[in-house]
Design a protein that fits this description.
heterotrimer; A mainly alpha (about 325); B alpha/beta (about 625); C alpha/beta (about 325); A: about 325 residues; mainly alpha; MetI-like fold; 14 helices; about 75% helix; C: about 325 residues; alpha/beta; Rossmann fold; four-stranded antiparallel β-sheet; 12 strands; about 35% helix
Chain lengths: ~325, ~625, ~325
């Protein structure tokens, strides 16, 4: 009952987020210098398409009606046409999602797993030299500019010691199916995943360390120790579950930063995903694609936050709205 | 402040930042070539002429790096300043006035917080063109909800602070309270987060420039890397150095924020204090007949704090026979709870047992301050919860908040009786709940769903799970309402008699021990200053402290008399201690008390007093 | 003589929401009757103890009288004039005459202000005197609470102990020379050995300044030591009122009797008989029907379950809200 109401209310909160994102987009278009129809259609669009866009968005209508039409338009999933490919923006974006998902998913899973493991491990030795060293390194890691780090990896592993590929997702002359294909992709993934993972792992080390140490200081841990549970059980069975709650929250909140990292990483490694697409759209001033990407990215982050909140609610019985 | 600067990470990053700031301000006057002049030959590697080499246009990289510092710092300062100011104002108003203002405002923060900064900046720059002013504004506009949220939660905490209520009830206006009491006290985390925001702003601008959306007219590190990317093989120094500069500056900002956060948060500080503990010592167990259930000799325990080491338990001795009850009374900080923790050998990380012997039913648990191991297993393990258990104070988190009560009890039962099975555990828990007076239907509740009294009953049921011989109850009723407190004490007392338990009751309330314990030990500053049978200690208290405590308590029966008041403040046992610890507050103190440690005087059957004037005190 | 405080049917109800969306969708809004129609009269210079457990509404009553909260019903007069709806300058003027001492001494003072600044702040708020005069008056107030200004004026709260902090709070309350001080559990968070010192100080100051105290506490023994009259609160209502000694010796309400019996005796062997109560205190959110104490009362009858008890007079200045008040007083103790 409690959980059902929570889920309902939390899902309802998705509506204002969507609304704000679309309205923000709309306002920016109107505030921007230049012809709105050109922004919506893309520069150098042919006159027929321009006229269609003017008609569709009611650009000769009053401001509020324009807003209304825009909301309906975007809300129904019509993000317009890419001015380069003449394809619907949404299709173009969806087509690129798998590659980005592969990159982001792999690196995120690795950095959360490795980060939490290291963080938990040093949380048992607070104040030690090792703790200080790891904490220092963790802070330093999330200060690394990911695009630069990617370049350095290329410099090291492709230029100086040429053992790994630095461009794209597959080799031009590689196999197109079977285990060889998978291996080829895996080889191409090593450097971009390493770059993305390195800059985000520090975050999770810090977080896990603090929150495990926090939980270990709580009264109920003293209780279970006094009961006689061995230290391993205290840590893994009692402390870790409570300590992972903040990690879940941060996971949702930080997705925006992770996606930012993905865009920059894909640019460096010419990875054929969303980031690469956005980069090319920027070079070509393909505004419909940039706007579409903004909307999709924002809603993805909102969705991730929704999911993590629901996971949190399932893990922590104290949650109520 | 001095303490803050003593931390190496803070000192180091402050130096880096000061250097960066100096370089940025002094850039026009430094003996460097024009950063835009294509004067030298291109692709020149680092050397004497150009320390960091030249780029594809023959521009000096060191000079461009220095000028890039200006841009990075400007972006960082301007955008985080706008963002923080906006956040402080909106967050304060939202948190302070609450109600629907807060409802709308805080939802707005939440929504804006979900908008990914970088993509909005991308969009803004793509629509408005790539001027540095747009970049800074866009960063500020997407990061302010972060500051606002922090400020709001600060204000929410601070506005319920008593000094704020005090100022309001003295007639202060809202603006006065906000300006004088709330905002100044709430700024610290904003400042901390501000440094992290600065790092984020620098990285965002660099990322933007790297994508080619930076200000075309400015020298930016991101743009340098962007240009260097195309010449990675030919001139790697073009991208290496600006990246390093970025890394160092952002890391300095993040380390500063992290360090400040730690320095300003005493809880995080305490986490990292650890006391050195003794290694266990091996013993062979030789059973003895007719011994006390607990025998404590000269027990010592210390806390390591930042400023000093506190001798929380300083040479405590007593023994307790099977089925007996001992009350340990003292004020907060006298070491009574630390002693309980030392007996169970569950202590905070910054605490360590430093001396003494403890034997449980003749088995040594602690020898000369070292945990005893019998047959390779720590002796305390063999008795924890099966023979010796504890009832903790009814803190909300004395039980695991995310696990239901029944599950916690089952696990504790199965830990020591793994062969019994879940059904047996459930049956035992059900019986205990009946005894303690918890309806069985509440078994599957979570701790937060129970009232304080119910939670305390669950703690009692937990302690009785394996029918122990000795229970240590540490302030079992503090924080409960008077009537519930009375009930729970009654239940503990009845159970003790029925089950033949021995009980150590740790409390600050003389009245509670008067009713529930056969003997009383009064603790002051880490020592037992008086130990006597309960009747005797109330009739003929031998120590001036005990006398003062009894005389300072109001009563509901008997004639109303003027209460005596003890002067001064409790003694903190640290450093070199000369003479009697109670002497500064004692009405009888003489020269000998200030110079000589008092002896332990036997003044009657089972009555010891730690006082030079034990006989005369009455 | 005009009463200092005169409250009639004074109430404070809070609407409990379910968050903004919940209230928007109309999901469950309950009313919390923190204070539910109490009558209270205080004479100038008297000490009245308001006794009750957590959730009894005693703290809210204090906040209503200091006008930190606005009453939701009833009348509230101070020195004859209505103060229930004061606002703006009139409210500020009222605050000069009524001050408050809070429970937690460690949060009572702004950690960034020196002691002298904290004590002088009420004077600054009301624009009394110049800086010099304010300092003199603050120093005098510190001296009155036995904190020598030479040693304490320039210190910060972090350097003081709990007892000293509470003395500073008392000095701050006194500096405006108020007619009434509402003290909310002022010693409950202090060490036992310094409590009596603070209580004695408060009593001595009353004798010198003729200030009245509304002393809020959960501890009947403390109430007995401090007050001339006691009002016992339970779930938002006053259930019994009377002169301190008489009320404790001959309690006229079962709840008062239980409270008296729950105070531990500081004499060994004086083992009291405990009465097993049914469950924990009910919540103000779901008030029981009839007498609000009936679910826990060992004497409850069917009448108690259906009908709210009237105020039964038990002599001059004494009454109890119990159908069987007369019988209750006559009993030795509450032992069935």
């Amino acid at each position: 009952m409690r959980l059902r109401r929570y889920v309902l209310l939390r899902v309802l909160q998705f509506v204002p987020v969507t609304f704000v994102v679309i309205v923000l987009n709309f306002l920016l278009i109107h505030l921007a210098p230049g012809d709105i129809s050109l922004l919506l259609a893309g520069e150098n669009a042919d006159p027929a398409y321009l006229a269609l866009v003017r008609e569709k968005f009611g650009l000769d209508k009053p401001f509020l009606e324009q807003l209304w039409r825009y909301l309906i338009q975007i809300g129904s999933g019509d993000l317009g046409l890419s001015f380069r490919s003449r394809q619907p923006v949404l299709d173009e974006i969806l087509e690129k999602v798998p590659a980005t998902l592969l990159l982001v998913g792999t690196s995120l899973t690795l950095s959360v797993a490795i980060g939490t493991w290291i963080g938990t491990w040093i949380a048992r030795r607070p104040g030690s030299t090792l703790d200080s060293a790891v904490s220092f390194a963790a802070v330093a890691l999330f200060s690394v500019p990911v695009f630069w780090f990617g370049l350095m990896l290329i410099l090291l592993f492709t230029v100086e010691i040429p053992i790994l590929p630095a461009m794209g997702m597959t080799s031009l002359d590689g196999p197109r199916s079977g285990p060889g294909y998978i291996l080829d992709i895996a080889r191409h993934m090593v450097l971009p995943v390493a770059a993305l993972m390195t800059v985000s792992v520090g975050q999770y080390v810090r977080l896990a360390r603090t929150s495990v140490a926090d939980v270990l200081g709580e009264h109920f841990i003293t209780t279970v120790r006094a009961i006689g549970f061995p230290e391993r059980t205290v840590l893994h069975h009692y402390a870790l579950r409570n300590a992972l709650l903040p990690v879940v929250t941060v996971l949702g909140l930080q997705l925006g930063l992770v996606l930012t990292g993905a865009v920059l990483t894909e640019t460096v490694f010419s990875w054929p995903g969303l980031g690469r697409m956005i980069y090319e759209a920027i070079l070509a001033r393909d505004t419909p694609v940039i706007m579409g990407a903004f909307i999709v990215m924002s809603l993805t982050v909102a969705l991730a936050s929704l999911i993590t909140d629901l996971v949190y609610a399932a893990l922590d019985p104290r949650v109520a709205l | 402040m001095r303490q803050v600067l003593r931390r190496p990470a803070i000192a180091l990053s402050a130096c880096v930042l000061a250097f960066a700031l100096a370089v940025a301000l002094a850039a026009p006057w430094l003996p460097l070539p024009d950063p835009t002049a294509m004067a030298a030959s291109p692709y020149e590697p680092p050397g004497a002429q150009h320390l960091l080499g030249t780029d594809n246009f023959g521009r000096d990289i060191l000079s461009r790096l220095v000028w890039g510092t200006r841009l990075a710092l400007m972006v960082a300062i301007v955008s985080s300043l706008i963002s923080s100011l906006l956040g402080i104002v909106l967050g304060s108003l939202s948190g302070y006035f609450g109600g629907w203002v807060d409802g709308i405002a805080s939802r707005t923060f939440d929504v804006f917080l979900l908008i990914p900064t970088f993509f909005l900046v991308l969009l803004i720059v793509a629509l408005f063109g790539s001027g540095i002013q747009y970049t800074m504004l866009a960063i500020a506009l997407t990061t302010w909800p972060r500051s606002a949220r922090i400020m709001r939660s600060q204000v929410l905490t601070l506005k319920s602070r008593v000094y704020v209520q005090a100022a309001l009830s003295a007639g202060a206006s809202h603006s006065r309270v906000l300006a004088r009491h709330i905002v100044p006290n709430g700024l610290a985390p904003i400042v901390t987060d501000g440094t992290i925001l600065m790092g984020l702003a620098i990285l965002t601008e660099a990322g933007l420039s790297f994508l080619g959306l930076g200000d075309q007219n400015a020298t930016s590190w991101g743009r340098m890397i962007f240009e260097g990317q195309r010449h990675l093989r030919l001139a790697p120094w073009m991208s290496i150095f600006p990246g390093l500069a970025l890394l160092i500056l952002v890391a300095a900002l993040n380390l500063l924020g992290d360090g400040l956060n730690q320095a300003l948060n005493p809880q995080l500080q305490r986490q990292s204090l650890r006391a050195k503990r003794h290694e266990p010592v091996d013993r062979v167990h030789a059973p003895q007949a007719a011994v006390p259930i607990l025998d404590v000799r000269d027990l010592r325990m210390e806390y390591r704090l930042e400023a000093a080491t506190i001798r929380a338990v300083d040479g405590v001795s007593f023994s307790l026979s099977a089925g007996g009850s001992l009350g340990i009374v003292g004020e907060s900080g006298c070491g009574k709870s630390s002693m309980g923790a030392a007996l169970l050998q569950v202590m905070a990380p910054n605490a360590a047992i430093t001396g003494g012997d403890v034997a449980f039913a003749g088995r040594p648990m602690l020898a000369d301050g070292r945990p005893v191991r019998i047959d390779g297993v720590e002796a305390i393990r063999a008795i924890r919860w099966t023979r010796l258990s504890t009832i903790f104070q009814s803190a909300i988190n004395a039980l695991n908040p995310v696990m239901n009560v029944q599950q916690q009890l089952i696990e504790a039962y199965l830990l020591h009786r793994p062969e019994a099975g879940r059904a047996a555990a459930l049956a035992r828990i059900g019986d205990l709940f009946d005894v303690i007076g918890i309806p069985r239907r509440r078994m599957a509740s979570y701790p937060h769903e129970l009232s304080g009294g119910m939670r305390q009953r669950v703690m009692i049921a937990l302690s009785l799970l394996h029918e122990p011989e000795l229970v240590i109850a540490d302030e079992p009723t503090t924080a409960l309402d008077v009537l519930i407190q009375d009930q729970i004490l009654g239940e503990i007392d009845a159970l003790r008699r029925r089950l033949g338990l021995a009980l150590i009751l740790i409390t600050h309330d003389m009245g509670i021990v008067a009713e529930s314990c056969e003997r009383v030990a009064v603790m002051y500053a880490g020592e037992i200053v008086e130990l006597a049978p309960t009747e005797r200690i109330f009739e003929r208290p031998g120590h001036p402290y005990t006398q003062a405590l009894i005389a300072s308590l109001p009563t509901v029966s008997g004639p109303r008399r003027v209460l005596s008041a003890l002067p001064g403040e409790p003694f903190v046992p640290a450093g070199d201690i000369v003479g009697c610890r109670f002497a500064p507050r004692c009405r009888m103190a003489a020269d000998i008390c200030r110079s000589t440690v008092p002896p332990r005087v036997k003044t009657g059957e089972g009555h010891e007093v730690l006082c030079h004037f034990a006989e005369a005190a009455r | 003589m005009t009463p200092l405080i005169e409250a009639r049917a004074l109430s404070k109800h809070y609407a409990l929401g379910r968050g903004w969306l919940g209230s928007l969708l109309g999901i469950g809004t309950e009313t919390l009757r923190a204070v539910d129609g109490i009558d209270l009269i205080m004479k100038p210079g008297e000490i009245l103890a308001l006794v009750g457990e957590s959730g009894s509404g005693k703290t809210t009553t204090g906040k209503l009288i200091t006008r930190q909260e606005q009453p939701s019903g009833g009348t509230l007069r101070f020195d004859g004039s209505d103060i229930a709806d004061l606002s703006g300058a009139a409210l500020k003027a009222y605050r000069r005459r009524v001050q408050m001492i809070f429970q937690n001494p460690f949060e009572s003072l702004d950690p960034r202000h020196r002691v002298i600044h904290t004590v002088a702040e009420p004077l600054a708020i009301h624009g009394i005197g110049n800086a010099r005069e304010r300092r003199d008056r603050a120093e005098a107030a510190l001296a009155r609470v036995e904190l020598p200004p030479a040693r304490f004026a320039e210190r910060y709260p972090a350097d003081l102990s709990g007892g000293q902090l509470q003395r500073v709070s008392i000095a701050r309350a006194l500096v405006l020379e108020p007619k009434l001080i509402v003290a909310d559990e002022p010693v409950s968070m202090l060490d036992v050995s310094v409590r009596s010192g603070v209580m004695n100080l408060m009593l001595a100051l009353r004798d010198r300044t003729e200030v009245a105290y509304l002393y809020i506490t959960h501890d009947l023994a403390v109430a007995r030591y401090m007050s001339g009259r006691i009002a016992v609160m339970y779930l938002g209502a006053i259930v019994e009122e009377g002169p301190t000694e008489d009320l404790i010796a001959r309690a006229g309400h079962p709840y008062t009797q239980l409270l008296v019996a729950a105070v531990p005796e500081h004499r060994p062997g004086a083992r009291r008989r405990r009465i097993r109560l049914a469950g924990d205190a009910a919540s103000v959110q779901v008030l029981p029907s009839g007498c609000r104490f009936h679910p826990r009362c060992p004497l409850a009858t069917d009448l108690c379950k259906t009908t709210a008890p009237p105020k039964v007079s038990l002599g001059a200045d004494r009454w109890s809200a119990c159908h069987y008040a007369g019988d209750v007083v006559a009993r030795e103790a509450l032992t069935p």
